[in-house]
Amino acid sequence: MTDSRTVTQENRDEGERIAVSRRALLAGSAGLALGTLGAAQEAAAQHGHGGTSGAVHAASHSNAVGSLSQRAYSVPTPVSNDIAHDPSAVPPPIGRREPETIRVDLETREVEAKLDQRATFRYWTFNGTVPGPMVRVRVGDTVEVHLKNAEDSWMMHNVDFHAVTGPGGGAEATNCAPGEEKAFKFKARHPGLYVYHCAVPPVAMHMANGMYGMILVEPEDGLPPVDREFYVMQGEIYTAEPFGSEGLLTEDYDKLLNERPEYFVLNGHVGALTDHYPMKASVGETIRIFFGVGGPNHVSSFHVIGEIFDRVYINGSVTQPPQTDVQTVVVPAGGAAIVEFQPEVPGRYVLVDHSLSRVERGLAGWLDVEGEENPEVFSEIG
Asked: Which residues make beta-bridge pairs with 107?
């Protein structure tokens, strides 16, 4: 008779072998110096308990839509972590001031968190949210970027700021193995809204898993004042399991290469800007949305159902006059736009990518506007 303790140990050993193999494969594909593969294997050895449970769960307990047992029993998602970024968490306007030195602290964290009501995903994040924190500086500022890779990470990480003039946008200076910290500084010479993201190969995988954010470099006089500002980014998630699966889902490299995401999301996960963080405003308020596409692959046709953008700063440029009276703005992967509008009628306005099939894969956000009805502008008949 086989000792149950022997079987348990064999299962644990097999789980550790799967975890190390998977991490080594991902880290090895990065092709970086500094012994990335060895660092990943060492991290796996040091943090085997957390990694093993995740790898075994991913290998044996993800419940695909077609599972027969799923039709009889719904498996609850045990993880309550949430990486969604509150769209109203925007740094305040800077306005007029002399250039300063600004320190930006980023920590790369890998965390299993909610993907939708039934599934979780192991996100790779900046500061624990997707997108990472919005950074706001003034043109002429010197920006010191300090990047720390959490000790329990499986992967090497870094950060590339599109606002940087310099090699790799800072990525080469911030290659961090788990537990390391690096820093660099740059002069913010060009006003505008810019994306930042992890740039460790495979770059697209790091971005698809959640490693992107934005930095606003204000012009000397700042931006015109508005009543409310929001921070919204679109992303794609590539899972081996089909859309709607239950349990811990795993990233799929082949789908990533073929640009076939299972999920399209705003601010990290399905429902982040509907059930979790619906945006709030009042009739007559001027609203500004800083919108970007973390991608890594698909262009967005950003649209707010029931509104027309009064002003659009195309490609995030704040040095050119904005376009006016725009219905939909095209934002490329790794790009940004600033839109402004003033709701005149109360109700729910829905943020979408007008490639509307993506709504069926999770992409939507709500802007709930309160105030008095305005029948001269809009009313039902009959």
From this structure: 148
- State which fold the 228-370 domain adopts: Immunoglobulin-like (2.60.40)
Which single residue is written with the structure tokens 């991290």? Answer: 43
Among 89, 316, 294, 331, which Cα is nearest to 197's? 294
339, amino acid identity: V
Fold of 101-218: Immunoglobulin-like (2.60.40)
Give 28: exposed, middle or buried? Use CB within 10 Å, 0-12, 13-18, 19+: middle
Q: 64-73: per-residue pLDDT in tens?
A: 444 555 556 5
- Domain locations along the chain: 4-61, 101-218, 228-370
DSSP, residue by residue, 292-315 = EEEESS--EEEEEET--EEEEEGG
| pLDDT digits 0-9 by tens, 172-223 | 999 999 999 999 999 999 999 999 999 999 999 999 999 999 999 999 999 9
CATH topology of 101-218 equal to that of 228-370? yes
Closest CA to 204 of 323, 326, 319, 297: 297
